[in-house]
């Protein structure tokens, strides 16, 4: 079981930033892109590498869509482990699943349907073959960065050595469980799994990602992803 790899897709959010009218629209993971729900695209992108043995989709306890949508998809299980934040959803899931500490777990956003198989496979290669705690996809910052105060430029930030984090992020189960517990016990808040390991003083590796692996966040992102897919 040394290199067994499972994936978790936290899909308990409502995606309000991506909705023009959040009252009437589906959560963004269920909205169609190129004729299929975005969640399906994200799942299929992970299954494009045969080393991903199983995917757990973690949804909110109130979710009524995922089980029917994914009932016929091989290697996928739906679990209602969702919390009020992404952090809680991932923590609940990693603490509830029956896996060995030395297995690998991969976390991938439901809202990244354009993940190229080349990036996925390279991340898996680097983690499985290297002596590392884990790694993540990321792309270097190419734009000039500004810090603002009340919508006025405060300063320009040096973009050298700055990266935009993506998913998947892949870690040994033992490291991720410990990191999430430490962060939770400390009352801190993190927006990705790498941050939790960094808080422990660990240093995941960066593997070059892709612009195709953009996160669908705003309403116009659906149109962009439609063209990309």
From TrEMBL:
Pathway(s) served: Isoprenoid biosynthesis; isopentenyl diphosphate biosynthesis via DXP pathway; isopentenyl diphosphate from 1-deoxy-D-xylulose 5-phosphate: step 2/6
CDD domains: CDP-ME_synthetase (cd02516)
Enzyme Commission number(s): 2.7.7.60
Enzyme class: transferase
Catalytic activity: 2-C-methyl-D-erythritol 4-phosphate + CTP + H(+) = 4-CDP-2-C-methyl-D-erythritol + diphosphate
SUPFAM superfamilies associated with the record: Nucleotide-diphospho-sugar transferases
HAMAP family, per database record: IspD (MF_00108)
Name of the protein this chain belongs to: 2-C-methyl-D-erythritol 4-phosphate cytidylyltransferase
Encoding gene (name): ispD
